[in-house]
Design brief:
Blueprint (H helix, E strand, L loop, with lengths): L2 E4 L6 E4 L11 E4 L27 H13 L12 H12 L7 H5 L3 E3 L6 E12 L5 E11 L3 E3 L3 H10 L2 E2 L1 H16 L3 E10 H4 L10 E8 H4 L1 H11 L8
Parallel strand pairs: 5-8
Antiparallel strand pairs: 1-2, 2-3, 4-7, 5-6, 6-9, 9-10
Helix pairs in contact: 1-2, 4-5
Length: 246
């Protein structure tokens, strides 16, 4: 399955494919960041509502999943598992589609000149991601605020930025920083604040098996870090009465 991947600071992109020698990924070939490479359909689309709507060749990944089923003691040829490799391969491609996007893709022309000088907050943005350590889901909500300095962004673009970074293999700490950095890069605002609250299935269904542990991370930039009143206002609004409940 061939795809693009943003580097740690969004400046270098890697195309994942067979036969590359890049050390940052087991199979990565560096390219420039002059626009993300898109998946190219190599076979006709399958009109099946049970399959995720992706456009890439998943044949090699299907073979790996078929073998994985054998290794865990299952029979991939039995009725309930015959299409499982196809379903899982397309599901993984969908759940990690953020590698094929960059901030310019999701923001587009959604930045506008505006003289507003007070805090703008979009809270309770649902997010779903995969932990890179166990490839199990973590899910929760993101709260994003910024103080403009002559420019604002369309409100729907903030959830799109969240989805772009969440639809990758992630850790919550990095996800929080990536969102804050993206908003800062797009708007050059006076300050940015991001808080994520999430539940991690790697802690709930395995390992320590703690069902009520919620992880909270924050990233503060500009006035959100330097001005105590601004920071307190943001955190008070972000952690209001409608915080995440399981």
């Amino acid at each position: 399955m061939s795809r693009s991947k943003e580097g740690p600071r969004g400046g270098i992109r890697a195309t994942v494919g067979k036969g590359s020698n890049n050390d940052a990924h087991p199979a990565a070939q560096l390219t420039s960041n002059d626009g993300a490479r898109k998946r190219v359909a190599t076979h006709p689309k399958v009109d099946d509502p049970d399959l995720d709507p992706i456009e890439c060749d998943t044949e090699e990944l299907q073979q790996l999943i078929h073998r994985m089923l054998e290794l865990i003691g299952e029979d991939p040829t039995r009725e309930g598992l015959v299409r499982t490799p196809l379903r899982v391969a397309r599901s993984l491609a969908w759940l990690t589609r953020g590698y094929d996007l960059d901030v310019a893709d999701v923001v587009g022309e959604g930045v506008f000149e505006e003289g507003h000088e007070n805090m703008i907050l979009v809270r309770d943005i649902e997010l779903y991601s995969l932990c890179e350590h166990h490839m199990l889901p973590f899910f929760g909500k993101a709260h994003i605020a910024y103080i403009p300095d002559g420019k604002i962004v369309g409100l729907s673009k903030l959830p799109r930025i969240v989805d772009m970074f969440a639809r990758r293999l992630q850790v919550q700490e990095r996800l929080t920083e990536q969102i804050a950095r993206a908003v800062e890069d797009v708007l050059q605002p006076r300050g940015v604040g991001v808080v994520i609250e999430a539940y991690h299935l790697c802690m709930m269904m395995r390992g320590v098996e703690k069902q009520n542990s919620k992880t909270i991370t924050s990233a503060l930039r500009g006035t959100f870090r330097s001005d105590g009143k601004t920071r307190d206002e943001f955190l008070r609004l972000a952690h209001g009465s409608q915080s995440l409940a399981l």
